[in-house]
Design brief:
Organism: Terribacillus saccharophilus
GO molecular function: intramolecular transferase activity
CATH architecture of the largest domain: Alpha/alpha barrel
Number of domains: 2
Number of helices: 26
Distance between the termini: 13 Å
Domain Squalene cyclase N-terminal: 16-288
Domain Squalene cyclase C-terminal: 300-615
Radius of gyration: 24 Å
Largest sheet: 3 strands, antiparallel
Pfam families: SQHop_cyclase_C (PF13243), SQHop_cyclase_N (PF13249)
Length: 620
């Protein structure tokens, strides 16, 4: 018998639905904070100070930065990070100095940087931004022949073997590196005293595998000058073709900053419409209701709206209700209709995916596509027009399965392992886009539950095998885009259950036992962002609302709804008031060790989804 009062569950669900009705926008979407790293805030301070724009916003961001500084002078990438974060500290220090803060007021930060490896050890994206503004020198001897961009995709080694996320950042960054572009101004403070080596030793070390690749590329430098000019023209066109209507590059602020400087390096004037529109697009990402002011790297509007529409429907909101109709109408308007870079690796499929942000039209991803399709499924059963869109999306998603049986985030088979070994930060996380447990599990959950593909289907057989092969020894799975083992295990278990894998199967039982073993005494679950850095589960002293919901949902999917662990977990979700820290702790990941994400929407989505699934099981 259930120990939980089902009236309490019903009341909690109804409260959450009412709150979401209040928060919905007129266009049907939900626009909630996508809070990432301070990188975008600092890049904004540097760029807009350099252009002499939006001084009020710059001042607000500077005040917010000071609020986030720790007692030892450092800044961190997530709450409770041990010993601070060198890259975040270098960037915050540089942004504040560039915008007029004196060295005297940042002495503790300077000492922290000096004693923790200096600027040389900061993330390479940060060093590029400092070099652009003359704060540190460019490496003298490192160049990337732009002719490499011209190598056809039919060749064994070509630029499109990098992940889409890497390519969109690398094109403007490599252009800047080649031209050693500097935008010097009265704001350009010298930070060379915080460099331990003149050269960027990770790029130029003769023993580095990257040096071997650059030596091979150097042969391209002997090609005729007209081909080098063609490489620059290709880079320029590459950026133009992938710029969204709001002026952002692939809808990422981080890439757009570098695009602005790349255009300047190509000879564009500051008042060029391309540059001004890009600045306007970045400024449009300033959110003053994001635990204070924050420059979002993109909006998360499509992602949030898809997940919330689905969660509300699972909670009992009828598909004909205006709230669902308007949300789904918004989603239908955001389905992609044009072929884009993904066709290079999968030319036979038609467009049909969804992207992450409100302005995204040319960079679909598999997670957003599955999320949108879940939200549209019920309506597709009643509406022929919606069904056509649903069918296109489902066909697209199924076609994006990798050869190894799993799903990646963006494109198919961009997982050449050699690129993951490049000696640059996060190469394995960003240079390639391999199959992951979270993507594979989430896609399986959609296809199994809503497209009726079960474990005997050839694609699902391959996916199940992939998950079994990549299960950790302790029974968990690592999730790439959420924190971390709780996220991956939730995705894998719900995916396996959806395609009909029996809860008694040994891989499932091991995962269930692991989830039960890491539950906290208060009935919740919590995992530290540090898990992503050390590659093993690291417990968080507090239970978070979001991670607790994931764990319970996974257990419910495996038939554990009557277990004491689920009962205690549901009690935790129903308890009021919950600590704000249990809601605000970041549970998303952009780049491990650098970029962690607090989705404002998650504390609405996942408790509602889990409570709804619990109620459905209790009724059955």
């Amino acid at each position: 018998m259930s120990q939980i009062n089902m009236e309490d569950v019903k009341t909690a669900i109804e409260k959450r639905i009412s709150k979401l009705e209040e928060l919905q926008q007129k266009d049907g979407s939900w626009r909630m904070c996508f809070e990432g790293a301070i990188l975008t805030d600092c890049f904004y301070i540097i760029t807009f100070t350099s252009f002499g724009k939006e001084a009020d916003t710059v001042e607000k961001l500077k005040l917010q930065l000071f609020k986030k500084q720790r007692d030892d002078g450092s800044w961190s990438a997530y709450p409770g990070e041990r010993n601070g974060n060198l890259s975040a500290t270098v960037l915050a220090y540089a942004a504040l100095r560039f915008s007029g803060v004196s060295a005297k007021d940042l002495r503790t930060a300077e000492r922290y940087i000096s004693t923790n490896g200096g600027i040389n050890k900061a993330h390479f994206m940060i060093r590029f931004m400092l070099a652009v503004h003359g704060m540190i020198p460019w490496p003298h001897f490192l160049k990337f022949p732009m002719t490499a961009l011209l190598v056809p995709t039919t060749f064994p080694i070509n630029f499109f073997q990098f992940s889409s996320y890497a390519r969109i950042h690398f094109v403007p960054m490599l252009l800047l590196l080649n031209k050693k572009f500097k935008r010097l101004s009265v704001n350009s403070v010298q930070l060379e005293h915080l460099l331990y080596e003149e050269e960027w030793d990770d790029f130029t070390d003769a023993r580095s595998p990257f040096r071997t690749i650059t030596n091979e590329w150097s042969r391209l430098a002997r090609l005729p000058a007209r081909l080098h000019r063609a490489g620059y023209r290709y880079a320029e066109q590459y950026m133009k073709e992938r710029t969204e209507s709001d002026g952002t590059l692939y809808s990422y602020a981080s890439a757009t900053f570098f695009m602005i400087y790349a255009y300047l390096a190509l000879g564009y004037e500051e008042n060029n419409p391309k540059i001004q529109q890009a600045l306007k697009g970045i400024h449009g990402l300033v959110n003053e209701n994001c635990n204070g002011i924050h420059v979002e790297n993109s909006t998360s509007t499509v992602w949030d709206t898809a997940l919330l529409s689905y969660a509300l429907q699972q909670a009992g909101a009828p598909v004909k209700q205006n709230m669902i109709q308007s949300a789904n109408h918004y989603l239908l308007q955001r389905q992609h209709v044009q072929k884009a870079d993904w066709q290079i690796h999968q030319s036979s499929v038609e467009p049909g995916g969804w992207g992450f942000s409100d302005s995204n039209t040319n960079h679909p991803d598999n997670d957003d596509t599955a999320a949108a399709l879940r939200a549209l499924t019920r309506q597709a059963r009643q509406d022929l027009t919606v069904k056509r869109s649903w069918k296109k999306g489902s066909d697209y998603l199924l076609a994006m399965q990798n050869k190894d049986g799993g799903w990646a985030a963006f494109e198919k088979d961009t997982d050449w392992w050699v690129l993951g070994k490049l000696p640059i930060e996060n190469a394995e996380d960003a240079a390639i886009d391999p199959s992951t447990a979270d993507l594979t599990g989430r896609v399986m959950e959609f296809l199994g539950t809503y497209a009726s593909l079960k474990k005997d289907h050839s694609s699902m057989k391959k996916a199940v095998r992939w998950l079994y092969k990549h299960q950790q020894l302790n029974g968990s799975w690592y999730g790439r885009w959420g924190v971390c083992y709780l996220y991956g295990t939730w995705a894998a278990l719900t995916g396996l259950a959806a395609v009909g894998v029996n809860p008694t199967e040994k891989h499932v039982k091991r995962a269930v036992n692991w989830l039960k073993a890491v539950q906290h005494e208060d009935g919740g679950w919590g995992e530290s962002c540090r898990s992503a850095e050390v590659g093993t589960y690291v417990d968080l002293p507090i239970s978070t609302v979001v991670q607790t919901a994931w764990a319970i949902d996974a257990l419910i999917a495996c038939g554990e709804q009557d277990s004491k662990e689920v009962q205690q977990g549901i009690s935790f979700l129903l308890s009021e008031p919950l600590l704000q820290a249990s809601i605000d702790y970041p549970t998303g990941i952009g780049l491990p060790g650098q970029f962690y994400i607090r989705y404002e929407s998650y504390s609405h989505i996942f408790p509602l989804l889990t409570l709804s699934h619990y109620r459905i099981k209790a009724k059955s």
